[in-house]
Structure prediction request, 300 residues.
Amino acid sequence: MTRPLAVGLDGSPASLAAADWGAREALRRDVPLRLVHAWEWQPLTYAPLAGADEPRLWSERVPREAAAELRERYPDLEITTDHLTGAPPEVLCDVARESELLALGSARLGRLAGFFVGSVAMSTVAHVERPVVLVRARTTAVDEHVSATDGRPLPAMPYRPVVLGLDLDRPCGDVIRFAFETASLRAAPLRVIHGWNPPAFIAYGLGAEPGPPTDTADQKADALRTALRRWREKYPGIDVIEQSVVGQPAHHLVDAGADAGLVVIGRRTNRLSAGPARIGHTAHAVMHHCPAPVAVIPHD
Prediction:
């Protein structure tokens, strides 16, 4: 059975942008699109002017109206809609289990503040076991492609690169595979970034003979090449750019997001831990500040 690509809708501009992104990605992956709105009943503390049923009726229209617009825009795409009852994070986690991936919207607050990833999206990302893509409000098809130097959009131009943030201490095949497959679907370059910091004894000149920092840089670059070797062989048509850079990974990934079509990062699920689900600091920073859509891939 083919898994659909699911989109969580709440009627906001960001979620509508996520639906449009999801439609394009579903076409690239040749899968159906499923639009889902989660309705959670809340007791009223006052009598609404429009009637007690109006919020529920509005919530039922959200996926239906979005689907109507997308069918006009993408007539070859199979689209289904669902109006489900329950707490949105729980509903979306259930939906994600049955999906190829789940797309959600996130709103931009401003250049300095970054983006607002709401409590529903944060809770979903922290608990879901399938890939989740966060899409910014006002993201369009044009943003996926390279533009002319004078700023004119050229949708026929090649796709912008897919950027992968890779942790060499715990490289995960699921995360790498997702990035390579996504780049392959777009015929886009894949830019792999590994950010690292020199040991303290190198940074501060301590220790007997720590060796030159260039030795460490060469070792990191070699480790990155080794980690990607079999994936390059599996996807020989992809132009892979490897970057082993000094500094916090999140900073480099956010900067790379300015010219990327998608940024891919991993999130450890810690299934064996008894503690609460959490999002690592690198994933958290990228989710909140990266200007491109961000794919968060859970892994052990």
Summary: The CA atoms of residues 1 and 98 lie 10 Å apart. The mean pLDDT is 85.
